[in-house]
Amino acid sequence: MNRSHSPRVVLVTGASQGIGQAIADVFLRNGDIVIGCAFSAFENARHAQKMKADWPEHFFYYSVDVTRTEQIKQFVSEAEQLFGRIDVVVSNAGKNVFKGIDCEESDWAHNFDLNLRSHWYLAKCARPALQKSHGVILVITSNHAFSTMPGCAPYNISKRALLSLVQSLTIEWGPEIRTVGIAPGFIDTDGNQAWFDAHPDARIARERTVKKHPVGRIGRPDEVGELCLFLASDNAGFIAGTTIVMDGGRSAIMQDEDDL
C-alpha cells in the first residue's frame, strides 16, 4: 500500500463485481477511500461485503440503480457528505445490451439510460465537488466503441458516444476537472466466463478467444484498476480528452485466421 499521499475519496460505480470491484480494490490497496455503488443490495453483494470486511474504515457501499437519476444524485450527495470531498470518479457501471440493430425500443432506451445517460448524469452531479478538488473523471467504455461485431447493437453505439462525452467533459470542464476514457477489451470476469460456459466446450471457446489476442491471453480486471490508478494520479496530468484502448492488441488485427 502506498501511504505517501493523503487518502483520496474515490467514487466507483458498478463496484460489486468484475472490473468495478477490481478498480475499487486497487484504489483501496493504494490507501484511498472508496465509496462504491452497484444495483445489488449489500447483503447480496459478496465482493462488496469482503471489501468492507477488509477495509472497514476505507470502503463504503450503496445500492444504486444508475438508470434512476434521482438515485445517482442522492448517491453523490451522500458520498460527499461522508468526507466532505470527492477527488476521483470512476464511472464504470454498465452491462452488455446485445440485442442487434433491430432491437425493441425498450432495449434501446434501457441501453442508453444505463450505458450513456448514467455516465453523463454522474459526472454532472459530481462536478461541484470535483471542481473544488481539481479532480479526475474516468469513464469506462469498451473496445466496442471502435469496432464491433454483428448483434452487439445498441451497446456498441452507446459506448461510441462515451468517446464524445469524454471529449466534451474535458473541453468544457477543464482545467479544473480532467477526464479520460478507458476502453477495455476481453477481460476475464465472471460474466465473460459465463459466455464461455454457454458454448458446447468452454475450454475450446476460451482457447479460441485467447488466440485472437496478440499478447497471448485475455485481460485481468486488476489491470484495468491499475490503469485507473495511474490515470487518476498527477503523473498522468497531461492525459485528458482521450480514450485509451486496452485490448491486448485485439484491435490491431485486420482479419482473424477463420476469416481467411
From TrEMBL:
Top-rank lineage group of the source organism: Bacteria
GO MF annotation, one: oxidoreductase activity
Pfam families attached to this UniProt entry: adh_short_C2
Keyword list, A-Z: Oxidoreductase
InterPro entries the UniProt entry points to: NAD(P)-bd_dom_sf (IPR036291), SDR_fam (IPR002347)
Family: Belongs to the short-chain dehydrogenases/reductases (SDR) family.
Descriptive protein name: NAD(P)-dependent dehydrogenase (Short-subunit alcohol dehydrogenase family)
Native source species: Enterobacillus tribolii
Species classification: Bacteria, Pseudomonadati, Pseudomonadota, Gammaproteobacteria, Enterobacterales
